[in-house]
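Async update (no meeting this week)

Hi team, since we skipped the sync, here's where things stand on the single-chain job. The sequence we agreed to prioritize is pasted below, unchanged from the tracker. I ran it this morning and attached the output directly underneath so nobody has to dig for it. Comments welcome in thread, and please keep replies under the output.
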Amino acid sequence: MREQNEKVIVQIYDALAKGDFKKYFSLLSDEIVYYAAGNCQLSGVHKGKEEIAKLGALTFRETQGTHNVVLQSMVATNAYVAVVDKWKASRKDRNIEMSNILVYKLVEGKVAEIREYIEDEKAHDDFWS
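Output:
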């Protein structure tokens, strides 16, 4: 199960890198819940694929498509995968790059929950304000 969960997460990041949102959403549970850290327009609890799609569209629009996330490392159990990823983006003549930790809960081979932990919450919030 651990290896299967790792494969799902690799597919998630691969789909994001390729802009393959059909593949990305196929890896999410219909009841997906994303706990986005920080205190900005992206923060909060996002439930369901529709809300995740709106969040992605907002991110794309605000960064004019410059938002990029790369998987750095991961460790998996039979139910969870903890990931360190690095993201960067440009917005309003500002640039940002930092690492975050995300914990993915998988149920029946699909991502059911994502919890995000930001490396530098103040810089993150300032960037998105």
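Quick observations from my side:
The radius of gyration is 14 Å.
Helices lie at 2-18, 21-26, 48-63, 121-128.
Reply here if anything looks off.
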